[in-house]
Amino acid sequence: MAGKIASFLFTLTLIGWRVYDIIKGRPTAMSWILLVLFSLVGLFELGDIFETRKKLAADGTANADAASADAAQTEAAHERQTA
Hints:
Helix content is 92%, strand content 0%. By secondary structure, the protein is mostly helical.
């Protein structure tokens, strides 16, 4: 996850570099093309970060549900043994 965030921050840096070139008055066709390209890459990276966070959150709740079910089964088995 940290690698994905670092990659996104690097993409933001590249976007900033292209914007700086354009603001400084040196806009070339390549600056505009790279700005669009870096922006699209950044959007996809951001989407991937959110998708990964959602998947990790879903896995976390599934693991918590499984752990509580295991605890309930263990407690029921213990009650049967003591009864």
